[in-house]
Amino acid sequence: MLVVSGSSCRHIAEDMAKLLGCEHHPLEARRFPDSEGYFRVPESSIEKIRSTTVILVSNTFPDSCIIETLLLLEAINDVKQGKLADIRGKGIDCSPTKSGLFLAIPYFGYSRQDKRFNQGEAVSARSIGMLLSSKCDGITVLDLHAPEVLENLSTPVTFSSSMDEIANYLQSEINPDFILSPDKGAIERASFVAEKIGCRFSYLEKTRIDAHTIIHKAKDLDVNGAVVTIVDDMISTGGTICRASEALREQGAKAVYAACSHGLFTGGAISKLDQYVDGIVASDSLKNPRSVVSSASALCRGIDKLIENRN
Ligand code: R5P
């Protein structure tokens, strides 16, 4: 087995390679001055890529990484197919190999556009999933917002979660008495964390008016004097967490923390959140100053499932 990465997830790919006991090879991924990408399997990796199962670790966020992921898969497939001759006469085409190619996606961008909420919209998550699945033998995705959107693609998809590792981190560093899901969508993840830690749990009902406006339905929470952690799949503007934290403080919470898999932290979200919560915990699916939990183990579990199902 071989783990490879482009520009987005080298840190995770290196950790995964250690856990899987195999090599990590960085692929060439850079930008031309006009921002178009250049992607290549280096000559030194060709033989290894042809001879073994390859796992590409790559995000589909920001948009440029969608193109990068697709073109890295394409380049790896060409190498596996034996398309090795270039226009300068270097390399010769040879026979295809049957070794597999899997994709591990720490953060799947566009995951929230998982339905046609309004007539005429693209179901972006599905469209991107279809493109990626046409170029590999299986995909694992970490903490996908709504996994249903990637069901029944042309290649198997497994879903992995870093909530196990997030729960361990919270238990040892914060020791919360109460876990709160800020909306119904995060109930499964947050209740898993509460169960693992062995503490109380509840959820809020959220209505999103627009990207920056959120209303939480008032609810009595038994949080007086409690250390609470709000657990969500992702934090973007931070609005959801700030409103939930206000509700918790009003009801007497002693301390409020936020935890998520994917820390997007858009538009100054960290400074805003710092005014509302006592600390923020995120996985390293996206690089940010709060990524303290490794997502590598969870992604390896997802890859193991893909390989098990294939055999
Ligand atoms: C939406 O349902 C997601 O699970 C998150 O709650 C949401 O994306 C967070 O966004 P923001 O930080 O902008 O409130």
Short account of what is shown:
The protein has 311 residues and is of the alpha/beta class. Helix content is 33%, strand content 25%. It starts with a strand and ends with a helix.
Task: Please give a structural write-up.
- This protein has 311 residues and is an alpha/beta fold.
- The chain has helices at 10-20, 43-51, 63-81, 124-133, 163-173, 187-197, 239-250, 269-274, 296-310; strands spanning 2-5, 23-26, 28-31, 37-40, 54-57, 101-105, 138-142, 157-160, 178-181, 200-203, 206-210, 213-216, 227-235, 255-263, 279-283, 291-293.
- It has a six-stranded parallel sheet with strand order 2-1-5-6-7-8, sandwiched between helices. The chain has a six-stranded parallel sheet with strand order 10-9-13-14-15-16, with helices on both faces.
- The two termini are 15 Å apart.
- The protein binds ribose-5-phosphate.
- Ribose-5-phosphate binds next to strand 13 and helix 7.
- The site of ribose-5-phosphate has 15 residues, from strand 13 and helix 7.
